[in-house]
Amino acid sequence: MRAAIITVSDSRASGEAEDRSGPELAAFAGELGFEIAAREVVPDEQGLIEERLRHLADGAVCEAILTTGGTGFAPRDVTPEATRAVIDREAPGIAEAMRVASRDHTSLWMVSRGVCGVRGATLIVNFPGNPKAIAEAGEGIREALPHAIGLLGS
Fold first, then answer.
1. What share of the chain is helix, strand, coil (3-state, %, to 5)?
2. Alpha helices (H) in the chain, listed in sequence order
């Protein structure tokens, strides 16, 4: 299984801040047995996020695209909107499971707007931008991700 990791952040893309969530998400994906096929950092620009999602999914670069960042309530947090614009089918149970898993760790779990869905044969999953939250939310979907990707390849 191959995964692409996209960090969505204006400050990380401009070099003003270090990307800590991308490496954390890559490590989580590695624990699940994913080979990291691509790692990118992009600003909070909906059109650019959509373009990268389409490129990685349609180019058969990977079976999963895991994003981190841009899922909150800030005006420039547009990762969910970009994801919805490119997916063929939503996978709401995955996003719900991530929020439920986060509930044990933060009282702010419900302000994550991340979505998940399928484009072609690629699963796209929006993770929170906080590096600590990646593992916490990821626990809720650890077993489901490989299974879901297996179903897409059927």
1. 45, 20, 35
2. 10-13, 21-31, 46-58, 79-86, 92-103, 131-138, 144-152
Amino acid code (one letter) for 58 = D
φ, ψ for residue 121, nearest 5 deg: -110, 20
Q: What are the tokens at 46?
A: 């909906």
CA distances (Å), origin 11, targets 20, 76, 128: 12, 12, 16
> Which region holds residue 80: left if phi is over 0, alpha if psi is between -120 and 50, else beta?
alpha
User: Is this structure's pTM higher than 0.90?
Assistant: yes
Cα-based torsion angle of the residue sequence 33, 43, 134, 107 in order, rounded to the nearest 10 degrees: -160
Exposure string of 129-145, with b = 16+ CB inside 10 Å and e = fewer, is bbbebbbbbbbbbeeeb
Nearest to 79 by CA among 128, 123, 130, 25: 128
Q: Is the dihedral of CA 31, 40, 152, 144 positive or negative?
A: positive
C-alpha 49 chain-centroid distance: 11
Q: What is the pLDDT of residues 112-152, one digit of tens each?
A: 999 999 999 999 999 999 999 999 999 999 999 999 999 99
